[in-house]
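Following up on my earlier message about pyridoxal-5'-phosphate. Here are the inputs again, as you asked, copied directly from the submission form:
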Amino acid sequence: MYKIMTPGPTSVPQNVIKARSMWFPNSDTDEDFIEDYHELCRQIAGLLHTENEVYIMDGEGILGLEAGCAALTEPGDRVLVLDNGIYGKGFADFVSIYGGVPVLYSSDYRNPIDADELRAFLEKDHDFKYATVVHCDTPSGMLNDVSAVCPLLKSYGILTLVDSVSAMFGAKLSVDDWKIDIACGGSQKALSAPSGLTLISVSPDAFAAIERRTAPIASFYCNLSVFRNYYKDKWFPYTMPASDIYGLKEAVRIVKEDSGRLKRHARIAAAVRKAVTGAGLTLYAESGYSPTVTVFNVPDGIRADDIIEIMRREYKILIGGSFGILSGKVLRIGHMGHNANTDDVSDTLDALDKTLRFLEFDIKNDMKTTFMASVGKANFGIY
Ligand SMILES: *Cc1c(COP(=O)(O)O)cnc(C)c1O
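Thanks, got it. Here's what our run produced:
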């Protein structure tokens, strides 16, 4: 058994594992299930600060991104794809698959999207049906300021679709104030439930766009409109994964009762950055550091895979490599959800420190010591 310190999936608390193994109802025929599902969706909406409809869909986080694009894209629609990271750029594929015309707005991958620069671009061209933006672009650990970007887009009449899969519940997310029409999350990141569920909120403006469509959404399973009246009709478009949803319910309860959560994420992330840079490593990003994941450059002369392998074999700790253009260049420590606690993070830094020394990297300051000195009391809180 490894300590899972990747930026999702995270380790899963025992209470969530237990909740998944309890008795659960027939999700098609038992009315209690619809009530439980509906109540859970309302609780998630509360945590996301939104009055919008929230749905839990049966599929990994990617399902929400695709379902959002499927719902808002009609053939020929121009869609603005904000690209300052690997997931950011990836949205262009979903737009194309559903017949839209993605227009990339590309900016530096080491810094968040600059709202003033975006405004200057929109002044010249704002004929877009919707725009996609990633809250935390996990491969680079970049946190975009969605609170600035989405209201700006909306002021030009552009609908907003946000991938907050790796930020939601670890970083602040205020869906209504920030004017997010579709916000996507997943079960396996800062919620720390197993992978397999998508959470998605849908605004009245997004529903209006869906209703105005002339072409039907080209999918059944990946289709937000089939969920629209589930509660009124007491009917789901397909059988819901009941045990997954009861596990999620426990994960949401933990988040709701964990009042110091966002501060703890921020404090642990800041202390990890201090430890990493204090040791002589460099961070990938120049600004916009996510509170859920820290991404650092692999030192010259050392292979990323060797670091990962030694940590796994000798210390039984899993950290993440990266992919796409960052493959082999950076490493990632996830400190989100259940993993955002001093013990697991300090063990991880200690193992990283020893691994790097073994690989003859000249560590300037002991990582665990730096981390512990700056983290303060960032404990689990209630569980
Ligand atoms: C994890 C994640 C997803 C979901 O994708 P998987 O890699 O399949 O888990 C989507 N967007 C972001 C930003 C993520 O971090």
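One observation from looking it over: The longest helix spans residues 261-278. Hope that helps, and feel free to reply on this thread.
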